[in-house]
Design brief:
Number of strands: 5
Strand content: 35-45%
Strand order of the largest sheet: 3-4-5
Distance between the termini: 14 Å
Helix content: under 10%
Largest sheet: 3 strands, antiparallel
Structural class: mainly beta
Order of helices and strands: HEEEEE
């Protein structure tokens, strides 16, 4: 399955352990020259500063993604 970053960023990231929504993908990390995805970044905490573009980030490594 192929997805553009625009399509991928619209999907919610859900923690499978507790079912909580972590938010939407804000960044994608690629490993070059291998050309594989090494992980995604989602907002770690929700706050009023998220609207201004300031937020803590949570990096999720690709092997942890289902």
């Amino acid at each position: 399955m192929e997805l553009s970053f625009k399509e991928l960023s619209k999907r919610e990231v859900i923690n499978v352990t507790d079912g909580k929504c972590l938010g939407h993908i804000v960044d994608l990390t690629l490993d070059f020259p291998k050309g594989i995805m090494s992980g995604i970044t989602v907002p770690a905490k929700r706050s009023i500063f998220n609207c201004l573009g300031f937020y803590e980030r949570l990096f999720i490594e690709s092997y942890k993604i289902k």
